[in-house]
Design brief:
Helix content is 34%, strand content 16%. The chain is α/β, with parallel strands linked by helices and 778 residues long. A 7-stranded mixed sheet has the order 1-22-18-21-20-19-9, with helices on both faces. The chain binds flavin-adenine dinucleotide. The site of flavin-adenine dinucleotide has 40 residues, from helix 8 and helix 20. Its EC number is 1.5.3.16. Keywords: Oxidoreductase.
């Protein structure tokens, strides 16, 4: 068994892994409890939209669905976006109302717009910034909204084809031509239409010269989405990625038996498409022809002794849990009204109400309540004691409607498709971003990259840790937001078994524990049998348990999780085999994320997401899930943030007329003379001058030494010779007197020979490149 992105591993698995795989069609029937409890996996407490929300666009929680059938439903095109089913095809003249009470075309199109995050009666902030209408409010704005909704719906009905402006015009009266142009341009540039991975959206060749050069830091979903859009817009782009793979927190791991007969794809990070209506990942799935598997509602819960939870108790406690959340919600409304900015933890509020109302007093009820609390900690990747009561669910109004779905084969399928044809430099850990009016210099472990702009998509955990130095420092409000916003933890244990002993008819089952401090440990199991290609179970570890899990031994973990599974299945006469392969995640110790996803911590609010998203000086831009106020902590939120920043970069490039300053996003193109560089050396003594490596302050870093050999000796002006030596050696040379003694130390003690300009080799040329860029930017 293995830990992901960590070095621990354990002895080979049990010999029982040679058991042949079971035929899924003959697998053990669904674990008992025929009267499965109602849908319970509330991702978060959900507020209603203030206006016109059809029930079909309101969604529940992370692992939720509406299907109660025992068979695995696969999505097809017609099921993907239920709203669109209501829309008559082909598009025809706008009708204002269905006389029979049915929805009119306009209503349906408004709902489609709502499902992708537009308000029904006002412009979005980005639309206002883009000046889509000459005057705000009034009839022009209303007409614009109708036109925008129509274009959006039209493209959403045929997402694999490119919609042209003239096609968009077809069903709009010609007097609104300007509005069509405006809406079409806004929707295209902001990634609402004509985006994705269908052949029609293949990447174009970058024009020469490009509009500008952009270095994107991080090849997660946000970075990949932004890079694709930017290339489409005519920018030259390079992605610098610290890992040796793309995808970041979306990571599908292939698990298999030694003989390769049992194989499964395990999503160790982002897994569920949470709400498919309006979801841009649903659009990509449609374009790529990926089927979607709807996560089924059936989720039996088991007591520690393996008995199923009594259905009546189950629904009673679930109702009580929701009432506690309602009370916390009312309390915060009155607190916010009165004091504006007072905040406490959601955990404190819930516990106070629980005590006051005598909720969950029997041991079984208490365990059930703790299970719901663990589920809430999972959804937020946070301890309830850290979550802001005031704003923890600030994103609820924007939740994507529709079912929650898996992609059979795992989300790496999206990553692979998104990364295709994008220039990505792997194993490039960015340590410093230097920016100024001439552009940006992005330093990695061994190179420096010069570009017009940089887009930073690293996780909030990396920003919190200060792994990247910004030079000059980020503005104080941004630094404060980085500190305030929470970045929490969720871990997983992925287990490949010889066969599916839990039954293929369910996607989830839960386990209750007596110890409240362990409530998050293996509280929920996801069965991936129907989508991963093999008998795969993934156990979730949330809350306090997720933190402890970072340091627990994998062997012990496997024993504990098998103990839980045996507790559930052995009393039913079902033998739990030893797993073939186990992978444990350690997202908290992973130095390229330091956690799982963002949450609103006490004292923070939705505003902090916006502050994190703000660009700095039209040079450094920010994307990633933690910059998306409406859809944080999700894969689609990351994707949309990438689209958003591509649009912002494009707008900024236009605004400040930033033109491409270098033909390649690479330092080696700089055309500076060595004499220019040595006019201001970092150190000079006698005939020696030194230029340090601008990317490193270590005393072992290599410097470029130049020694001037006097006119007297050569008889024809100064001759310069060069050497690459460590900074430490530079200091030793500096500390002794006289050039002759220095040269002797150099040759005899350091064994360094002076060479001509052409003899510096690739190490020297790389160093020179970094120095030149630093020189040109500062
Ligand atoms: C365990 C877990 C479960 C989840 N479950 C779900 C789910 O079911 N549904 C859902 O929608 N979302 C889920 N998420 C959240 C979702 O995966 C993320 O929101 C999304 O993938 C974030 O994408 P991103 O591009 O913002 O960041 P990332 O994917 O983290 O990409 C950032 C990239 O930057 C790179 N990087 C970091 N530091 C540096 C550096 N110094 N230099 C260069 N590169 C660097 C990283 O290696 C990474 O590739 C889950 C996440 C986790 C961890």
């Amino acid at each position: 068994m293995e830990t992901e992105d960590a070095s621990q591993s354990t002895p080979p698995p049990d010999p029982s892994h040679s058991t042949p795989p079971s035929d899924p069609s003959q697998s053990t029937p669904p674990a008992e409890n025929p009267e499965s409890p109602p849908a319970r996996k509330r991702r978060r407490r959900r507020k209603q939209f203030p206006e016109m929300v059809p029930s079909l666009s309101v969604r529940s929680l992370r692992p939720q669905s509406t299907s109660r059938s025992g068979t695995a439903p696969l999505y097809n095109d017609s099921m993907i976006d239920e709203l669109l089913q209501l829309q008559p095809r082909p598009p025809r003249r706008r009708s204002n109302a269905g006389g029979d009470g049915s929805l009119s075309d306009l209503d349906v199109e408004a709902l489609v717009a709502l499902s992708v995050g537009f308000a029904s009666d006002s412009l979005s902030e980005d639309e206002i910034l883009s000046s889509v209408v000459p005057t705000l409010a009034g009839p022009i704005q209303s007409n614009y909204i109708i036109v925008r909704n129509h274009i959006l719906s039209r493209w959403r009905s045929t997402v694999s084809s490119r919609l042209s402006e003239s096609h968009a015009m077809e069903s709009i009266r010609s007097e609104h031509k300007n509005l069509v142009s405006s809406a079409f341009s806004f929707l295209s540039s902001h990634g609402f239409i004509n985006f994705g991975l269908a052949p029609a959206f293949r990447l174009p060749a970058v024009p020469s010269p490009p509009r500008a050069n952009v270095v994107v830091i991080g090849a997660g979903i946000a970075g990949l989405a932004a890079a694709r859009q930017l290339i489409t817009f005519g920018f030259k782009v390079a992605i610098l990625e610290a890992r040796s793979r793309p995808g970041g927190r979306v990571h599908t791991r292939k698990m298999c038996s030694d003989d390769g007969s049992i194989v499964a794809a395990a999503d160790l990070g982002g897994s569920v498409l949470t709400g498919i209506n309006g979801n841009p990942l649903g659009v990509l799935a449609r374009q790529l022809g990926f089927p979607l598997h709807k996560v089924r509602d059936v989720c039996p819960l088991y007591l520690p002794d393996g008995r199923p939870v009594d259905t009546a108790t189950d629904s009673r406690v679930e109702t009580a849990f929701n009432q506690l959340l309602d009370k916390a919600c009312k309390l915060r409304e009155s607190i916010l009204e009165e004091f504006q900015s007072v905040d406490v933890s959601l955990g404190t509020a819930l516990e106070a109400f629980r005590k006051a109302h005598g909720v969950a007093e029997t041991p079984e009820e208490r365990m059930l309540l703790n299970w719901h609390l663990a589920n809430l900690e999972y959804a937020n990747a946070a301890l309830l004691s850290d979550l802001s009561m005031a704003y923890w669910d600030q994103d609820d109004p924007y939740e994507m409607g529709g079912d929650h779905c898996f992609i059979p084969g795992g989300n790496c399928r999206f990553v692979r498709a998104l990364a295709e044809d994008i220039p990505i430099f792997y194993n490039q850990t960015v340590s410093r971003i230097h920016y100024g009016c001439d552009g940006v210099l992005v330093y990695t472990n061994d190179q420096a990259f010069h570009a017009d702009m940089a887009l930073c998509t690293v996780p909030l955990g990396v920003l919190k840790k200060g792994s990247i130095v910004f030079d000059p420092e980020l503005p104080p409000p941004k630094q404060d937001a980085i500190k305030r916003l929470g970045f929490g933890l969720l871990n997983k244990v992925a287990m490949l078994f010889p066969h599916d002993f839990w039954g293929g008819g369910i996607d989830t089952f839960g386990h209750l524990t007596e110890d409240p401090r362990q409530r998050g440990e293996f509280f929920l199991f996801y069965s991936y049998t129907s989508v991963s290609g093999g008998p795969l179970l993934v156990a979730l570890v949330a809350g306090e348990s997720a933190i402890k899990f970072e340091n627990s031994s994998p062997v012990e973990t496997v024993e504990r999780v098998l103990g839980v599974l045996r507790g559930i299945f052995t009393p039913k006469g079902i033998e739990v085999p030893a797993p073939i392969q186990v992978v444990c995640t350690r997202w908290g110790s992973d130095k390229f994320t330091y956690g799982s996803y963002s949450y609103v911590a006490i004292g923070s609010s939705g505003d902090d997401y916006d502050v994190l998203a703000e660009p700095v000086g039209d040079r450094v831009f920010f994307a990633g899930e933690a910059t998306n106020r409406k859809y944080p902590a999700t894969m689609h939120g990351a994707l949309l943030s990438g689209f958003r920043e591509a649009a912002n970069i494009s707008r900024a490039a236009k605004r400040s007329s930033i033109l491409s300053t270098t033909d390649r996003v690479d330092c080696r193109e700089e055309q500076l003379d060595l004499d220019d560089l040595y006019q201001n050396p970092d150190l000079s003594f006698g005939s020696f001058s030194v230029l340090y490596d601008p990317c490193s302050s270590s005393s072992d870093s290599i410097s470029l030494l130049r020694v001037g050999i006097g006119e007297r000796k050569t008889g024809s002006g100064l001759l310069y010779l060069y050497a690459l030596i460590s900074k430490r050696h530079v200091m030793e040379l500096h500390d002794i007197d006289g050039d002759a003694r220095r040269l002797s130390l150099l040759y005899r003690n350091f064994g360094t020979k002076l060479v001509g300009r052409d003899g510096l080799g690739s190490l020297g040329e790389n160093l020179l490149g970094r120095i030149k860029i630093d020189f040109s930017v500062s």
